[in-house]
Protein: F-box domain-containing protein
Amino acid sequence: MDQRFILTDSAQSPLICGLPDDIAFLCLARVAREYHALLKCVSKRWRELVCSEEWYFYRRKHNLDETWIYALCRDQEEQLHCYVLDPNQLRRGWKCIRGLPLRSLKRKGMGFEVLGNKAYILGGCCWYEDACDEVYCYDASMNSWNEAPPLSTGRCYFACEALDDKIYAIGGQGPKSSDPCSWDTYDPHTNTWKSHVDPNVVPDIEDSMVFDGKIYIRCGSSAVSSHVYAVVYNLSSGTWEHADDDMVSGWRGPAVVVDNTLYVLDQSSGTRLMMWCKGKREWVAIGRLSSLFTMPPCRLVSIGKSIFVIGKGLRTVVVDVGNAGNAGGVLMSSSVRQWISLGDVISCKTIAI
Structure:
């Protein structure tokens, strides 16, 4: 165990009376995440410990971390909100995260991505403001928002993905004509952005995902063709390439990867979960989701072997693809019986602490 936090505070009163600090740390680190907010209220030392990097890395190293879901949403007044869900406490439902930066509340076309225990909101624009370069960081351990280093250029309606411990902000609209063919990478270790240009980046981005260690970007079908076009960023070569047509042909909805298997939610007629069989190079239908619980358009996120289908009003359905039974073609699932007066869910991510 990293002793930096404990040694720094060794002159203070013990974490728990009668116990050495290293033993107290081992005990406290095993407290369930739902009680971490209460731990912070005990004392300043406990709060600093729960918010520390040592706490975060120790829980990850010893498989004590618990994953929660974070959703960036827009309400009926076109204002942004951020919510969190503890998947182990589905009956408690979604909780609103306060303190979202005021300057970002009315923006559209923003990026939302996660690195470690931090979530980032990037760029965006609105009717009175061109594409901006602002980035805001939410520290899930401290439950606080802060301004982060800005993008290399302003962007809105762009692809945003995390790969190899970096954030990629790709294409979209910006102040310069070259912006749709450029992308920025954020390195948290140097806390800086680096700009890149490649003419192969798709100009009109509809969706993106990370699969097989690569970033896939999809544009929509054009007026003259129903063909779905996509490019893929190969991290090993640092280049953008044309994606395989057979895989891209079935990518017509939100996607999520579970155990290196790609799933897509087809929302063209109801909601149907599809799986990409990489060996056979074909898409297979897993089953439909009940229209009583889903509320398209939906977003997907996964924890373990469970896929969370999150739609309008944060209506949430959970499907265990490791045991995906169905009745009459309808997938068996559980749901969060909660309705929040919201418009669309923009993006969903997970943070494990």
Notes: The CA atoms of residues 151 and 195 lie 9 Å apart. The mean pLDDT is 90. DSSP finds six helices and 26 strands in the chain. The two ends are 16 Å apart (CA to CA).
